[in-house]
Amino acid sequence: MSIKLYVGNLNYKTTEDTLKELFAQYGEVASVNILQGRGFGFVEMATPESAQDAKTKLNGTEFDGRKLIVNEARPRTERKPGERRPGGFGGGDRRGFGRF
After folding, report:
1. What percentage of the chain exceeds 70 in pLDDT?
2. Does some domain include residue 95?
3. Which of 23, 49, 64, 65 is the most exposed, having the fewest neighbouring CB atoms within 10 Å of its CB?
4. What was the pLDDT predicted at 81?
5. Stretch 57-86: mean pLDDT
6. What is the DSSP string of 43-75?
7. How far from 53 is each of 25, 69, 94, 97, CA to CA, in Å?
8. Beta-bridge mates of residue 29
9. How far is it, in rounded angstroms, from Cα 50 to Cα 32?
10. Number of domains in the chain
């Protein structure tokens, strides 16, 4: 059973290949996905043991000039069509937005 890890505070120049090399030191990497321009991504480790080892040893360490944040990824929550996320520009008082 694979385990997905959240990897935060990434340098924007970090590539999926370099991140995979880093995590491969702790076990088989099933997949890597960096969200470009967001400073975070996900690394899926093949076993729970390798995920725990990588999380313990890499969280707080420096990589590409930044201190990594490594945690187990939270499960993605399903949203109903049209449902908005909290915060942002949705809902509430719209004074000053879009008025002429």
Report:
1. 84
2. no
3. 65
4. 80
5. 89
6. EEESSHHHHHHHHHHHTT-EETTEE-EEEEPPP
7. 10, 14, 48, 48
8. 45
9. 15
10. 1
